[in-house]
UniProtKB/TrEMBL annotation:
Keywords: ATP-binding, Biotin, Ligase, Nucleotide-binding, Transit peptide. Residues 1-447 form the Biotin carboxylation domain. Gene3D superfamilies: 2.40.50.100, 3.30.700.40, 3.40.50.20, ATP-grasp fold, A domain, ATP-grasp fold, B domain. Acetyl-CoA carboxylase is a heterohexamer of biotin carboxyl carrier protein, biotin carboxylase and the two subunits of carboxyl transferase in a 2:2 complex. It comes from Neptunomonas qingdaonensis. This protein is a component of the acetyl coenzyme A carboxylase complex; first, biotin carboxylase catalyzes the carboxylation of the carrier protein and then the transcarboxylase transfers the carboxyl group to form malonyl-CoA. Residues 581-657 form the Lipoyl-binding domain. This is Biotin carboxylase. SMART domains: Biotin_carb_C (SM00878), GARS_A (SM01209). The keyword NAD does not apply. It catalyses: N(6)-biotinyl-L-lysyl-[protein] + hydrogencarbonate + ATP = N(6)-carboxybiotinyl-L-lysyl-[protein] + ADP + phosphate + H(+).
């Protein structure tokens, strides 16, 4: 087995490969771009080399640099992951030419599957079922029209050089064929530099079912069940699952054996995926073959109990397949959701930013998170904005879906928009639970998936206010001593029903809040709607009762920016603090009230060492909050008032002794 490999990739797949390699005692060399200097995969590797500037063309696609680093570091093999150079025949050849094992298929197999029509010719010879149609080299329009008539309508014109849904055009009857063909040829010439078309009967409600295959260097081949990847948006997979719901054992066997035959037809080695269109009548047709480990391979790992990266490493090192076909069993059901930094409310445009706050679901036998980021990382414009893959497993699909919904609700990301809410709505939707799966799923259920959050802003802000109050309480001195006079708000208040104001901004709108502390909680009034609220906060978890409804939410308060996390959705609002210019404060050791007002927070206690500018007391006056800050480094010697006290203009609030002169 290899003692050292280089991972020519980044993000979650690089981390994932390193995890398995380390488990097998293999040392790992990472490569990174300037944008990934502090990336998780670099930290996980045993050593790492800088490739160059952030753009992929100057880093992760620089085959020459990657090979140099492999040779310099003594790596015996390179794992390409997916994307980047994973299906680059020149790179695969260059590895072998430098006596470095390419952990993937032979370059010839990559080339064979690189062209749609060549792939179809190979599959035809291997008796792999193709969608009825024409994929010949003769592109004479009259011949194509005759083939279209033979095929029948509706039919699909597909650009041979196209892919991923690009260059497809539906033709519904012969009368429009000639014009449609000419248009499709023009588009294909412009987009791919090749006008050649193939014709296929159009399947109106197909599912995307793909078979995981593995072949070793001794000519053995197996299939590891299938994955259903029908839930896609604009040809991007959103949720994948294994096994395919409703697929019979007979069909599984037929598809699996067909996929292995397809792999053997091109002398395949390593992990591969044969994609099929699965029609409503149970028939299936070859679509394409991917000559790499797929993003969604974890769902196959979860139902088979196999580590596919370990299989890749062993096979690349010349070992035979770890299992024979009859030894491969599947159990339960797995789902994968791709968590993206994107804005579903803005046409899923990718977003960039810093992951200021990141809490992932607890991992266990049922929940797995494959990610390449940690809290504080940047999501940049340079690479795919996938934050993580969330994979769940359970004994059956219904329980697996419940796991997924709960895990998505526990996946909390602050600092940028994500598709988590969208994923949760999709996974929990009735059509999805009822297995109404076909490639048009998202389009068909668009309204259901984009339902606006019904929770009114006022109750959201009451929750946000409660979170802030509990946070302040936690930062008060003596918070652990319930009997401390600093916590007995009522007895220290000069008049009973002091109402503290607060102001929130949601979007462009300002919302006035007033808070009256009661015996067991608060009356929080938001825009004249009053809520009775009591809560306890531990870390970022708020257990709250609002108007008798007990619920559990999480929050993240960064300065004035508040994010509430609830059922997979985020609610964002900003505290609007009216502050005055602290320079008005008197100099010297004691700090006085700038005007009549009330103490709303005491953040320091006698004996505490403080830094210049540190907030010691917050008071409210004239609907403004005033932060009383330490005028210099020193030690707090006295705090004269407590929360709820009313103070007069000029009253000394706190005394700070300067640091003893050295
Ligand atoms: C099809 C089809 C219906 N009939 N071919 C989309 C991209 C490429 N993977 C092939 N695709 C399709 N080919 C015939 N004859 C419908 C699709 C298709 C699709 C296929 C799989 C997964 C998602 C899809 C989304 C739209 C269309």
């Amino acid at each position: 087995m290899f003692s050292k490999i280089l991972i020519a990739n980044r993000g979650e797949i690089a981390c994932r490969v390193i995890q398995t390699a380390h488990r097998l005692g293999i040392r790992c060399v990472a490569v990174y771009s300037e944008a990934d200097r502090n990336a998780r995969h670099v930290a996980m590797a045993d050593e790492a080399f800088l490739l160059g500037p952030a753009p992929s063309s100057e880093s992760y696609l620089r085959a020459d640099k990657i090979l140099q680093i492999a040779l310099k570091s003594g790596a015996q093999a390179i794992h390409p992951g997916y994307g980047f150079l994973s299906e680059n025949t020149e790179f695969a050849n260059a590895c072998e030419a430098n006596d470095i094992a390419f952990i993937g298929p032979p370059a010839s197999a990559i080339a064979a599957m690189g062209s749609k029509s060549a792939a179809k010719d190979i599959m035809l010879k291997a008796d792999v079922p193709l969608v009825p149609g024409y994929h010949g080299a003769d592109q004479d329009p009259a011949l194509l029209k005759a083939e279209a008539e033979k095929c029948g309508f509706p039919l699909l014109l597909k650009a041979i050089a196209g892919g991923g849904g690009k260059g497809m055009r539906v033709v519904t009857h012969i009368g429009e064929f000639t014009e449609a063909l000419a248009a499709a040829q023009r588009e294909s010439q412009n987009a791919f530099g090749n006008p050649d078309m193939l014709i296929e009967r159009y399947l109106t409600k197909p599912r995307h079912v793909e078979i995981q295959v593995f072949c070793d260097k001794q000519g053995n081949g197996v299939y590891l069940a299938e994955r259903d990847c029908s839930v896609q948006r604009r040809h991007q997979k959103v949720i994948e699952e294994a096994p395919a719901p409703g697929l019979s054992d007979e069909t599984r066997k037929a598809m699996g054996e067909t996929a292995v035959a397809a792999a053997k037809a091109i002398d395949y080695v390593g992990a591969g995926t044969v994609e099929f269109l699965y029609d409503e009548d149970g028939s299936f047709y070859f679509m394409e073959m991917n000559t790499r480990l797929q993003v969604e391979h974890p769902v196959t790992e979860m139902i088979t109990g196999q580590d596919l990266v370990e299989w890749q490493l062993r096979i690349a090192d010349g070992e035979p397949l770890p299992l024979q076909q009859e030894q491969i069993q599947i159990r339960g059901h797995a789902l994968e959701a791709r968590v993206y930094a994107e804005d579903p409310d803005n046409d899923f445009l990718p977003v960039t930013g810093t992951l200021h706050y990141l809490r992932t679901p607890d991992e266990n036998a049922h929940v797995r998170v494959d990610t390449g980021v940690i809290e504080g990382d940047e999501v940049s414009v340079y690479y795919d904005p996938m934050i993580a893959k969330l994979i769940v497993w359970d004994e059956d699909r219904e329980q697996a879906i419940n796991r997924m919904v709960h895990a998505l609700e526990s996946y909390r990301i602050g600092g940028m928009k994500t598709n988590i809410r969208f994923l949760r709505q999709l996974a929990d939707s009735k059509p999805f639970r009822d297995q109404e799966l076909d490639t048009g799923f998202i389009e068909k259920h668009n309204d259901l998936l984009f339902q606006k959050d019904k929770t009114d802003i006022q109750s959201q802000l009451a929750l946000a206010t409660s979170y802030v109050l509990e946070t302040e309480r936690q930062t008060q001195p003596n918070k652990d001593d319930p009997d401390s006079p600093f916590n007995l708000q009522t007895s220290w208040r000069l008049n009973a029903n002091y109402s503290r104001p607060m102001e929130w901004v949601v979007g462009e709108d300002h919302h006035q809040v007033s808070i009256v502390e009661q015996q067991n909680g608060y009356d929080i009034t938001v825009d004249n709607v009053t809520f009775k609220v009591s809560a306890t906060l531990s870390d970022d978890h708020l257990r709250v009762v609002i108007n008798g409804h007990r619920l559990s939410i999480h929050g993240h308060l960064a300065g004035n920016d508040m994010t509430l996390f609830r059922e997979g959705q985020q609610f964002q609002c900003q505290l609007f603090r009216h502050t005055f210019d602290e320079s008005d404060q008197s100099a010297g050791g004691s700090l006085t009230a700038p005007m009549n007002g009330a103490i709303v927070a005491v953040l320091a206690e006698a004996g505490q060492i403080v830094k210049q500018g540190e907030t010691l007391v917050i008071m409210e006056a004239m609907k403004m909050e005033h932060s009383i800050r330490a005028p210099h480094d020193g030690t707090v010697t006295e705090v004269y008032f407590a929360v709820g006290d009313l103070v007069s203009d000029g009253a000394a609030l706190v005394a700070v002794a300067p640091v003893e002169e050295a």
